[in-house]
């Protein structure tokens, strides 16, 4: 839809003497990159909260966890443990932590991707759903995925997390950037060298260090992404207003 709007806006209509400007917030395939020698509890907590808040229906949700092989097994164990503590059900009951997905179309699409994930990787937890009294999907995690797997590449927009293992931080950055999106991301690392490398090479519009990849504060934290994630117009603050203004340079000879 964003591409269609962008294309239509580019067409000059009769009588139009300016080029229309577009602010487009589009898709995401956001990643949390976990380095070696880190607090595994912090890493797992950041991943689970980013992946499953709002039933995973956030453009900034963590849909990929890219984890260093030295801490992979322990972080995966904690992801499973934390995920299975989240109760899915009617949000009117305060004992439930996550409600249904948006509608029938979302329900069908997410379930299609879950079936794809079962073929591409190992199901760690979840993988089931019910539409008996609402469109409820159990929190789903796939591990041991190839970085090129569809569930690692394509936006699902639901409570599905894809996990892969890397041998080094540099390899992790390569996997991070190997999608058509570039909205948000996070790095869990105790290495200042690696954090500075990510500052330069982690190609997203909003990058977080040692915390989750969601939760930009509207009005304070400019938000927008690169590549097919949109026009990087940094909505949510005053920055995007410049796109609606015209700059004018005036020079006067004395």
What portion of the residues fall into strands of 2 or more residues? 15-25%
- Cα gyration radius (Å): 20 Å
Total beta strands: 11
Whole-number mean pLDDT = 95
User: Residue share in helices?
Assistant: 25-40%
How large is the count of helical segments?
7
| Oligomer classification | single chain
Largest beta sheet, briefly? 7 strands, mixed
Q: Give the SSE string.
A: HEHEHHEEEEHEHEEHEE
Q: Structural class, please?
A: alpha/beta
In order across it, which strands form the biggest sheet?
Answer: 3-6-7-2-1-9-10
N-C termini distance? 52 Å
Overall 3D shape:
globular
- Which stretches are poorly predicted, pLDDT < 50 over at least 5 residues? none
Question: Could you walk me through the main structural features you see in this protein, from its secondary elements to its overall organization?
Answer:
It is a single chain. By secondary structure, the chain is an alpha/beta fold. Helices cover 29% and strands 17% of the residues. The chain has seven helices and eleven strands. It has helices at 2-10, 40-52, 72-83, 104-120, 150-153, 169-176, 192-201, and strands spanning 30-34, 62-68, 122-125, 129-130, 136-137, 140-143, 160-166, 181-182, 184-188, 206-209, 226-227. It has a seven-stranded mixed beta sheet, with helices on both faces. Strands 4-5 form a two-stranded antiparallel sheet. Helix 2 (40-52) crosses helix 3. 42% of the residues are buried.
What topology does this entry show?
Elements: H1 2-10, E1 30-34, H2 40-52, E2 62-68, H3 72-83, H4 104-120, E3 122-125, E4 129-130, E5 136-137, E6 140-143, H5 150-153, E7 160-166, H6 169-176, E8 181-182, E9 184-188, H7 192-201, E10 206-209, E11 226-227
Parallel strand pairs: 1-2, 1-9, 2-7, 6-7, 9-10
Antiparallel strand pairs: 3-6, 4-5, 8-11
């Amino acid at each position: 839809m964003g591409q269609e709007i962008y294309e239509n806006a580019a067409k000059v209509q009769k009588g139009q003497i300016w080029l229309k400007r577009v602010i487009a917030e589009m898709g995401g395939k956001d990643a949390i990159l976990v380095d070696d020698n880190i607090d595994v509890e912090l890493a797992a907590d950041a991943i689970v909260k980013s992946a499953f808040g709002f039933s995973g229906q956030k453009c900034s949700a963590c849909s990929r966890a890219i984890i260093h092989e030295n801490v992979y097994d322990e972080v995966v164990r904690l992801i499973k443990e934390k995920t299975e503590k989240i109760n899915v059900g009617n949000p009117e009951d305060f004992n439930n932590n996550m409600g249904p997905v948006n509608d029938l179309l979302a329900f069908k699409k997410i379930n299609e991707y879950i079936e794809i994930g079962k073929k591409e990787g190992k199901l760690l937890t979840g993988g089931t759903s019910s539409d008996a009294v609402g469109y409820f999907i159990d929190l789903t995690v796939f591990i041991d995925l190839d970085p090129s797997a569809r569930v690692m590449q394509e936006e699902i927009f639901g409570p599905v997390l894809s996990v892969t293992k890397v041998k080094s931080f540099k390899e992790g950055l390569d996997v991070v950037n190997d999608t058509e999106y570039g909205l948000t991301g996070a790095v869990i690392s105790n290495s200042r060298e690696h954090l500075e490398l990510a500052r330069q090479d982690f190609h997203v519009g909003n990058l977080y260090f040692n915390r989750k990849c969601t939760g930009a504060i509207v009005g304070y934290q400019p938000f927008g992404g690169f590549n097919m994630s949109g026009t990087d117009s940094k909505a949510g603050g005053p920055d995007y207003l410049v796109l609606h203004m015209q700059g004018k340079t005036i020079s006067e000879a004395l």
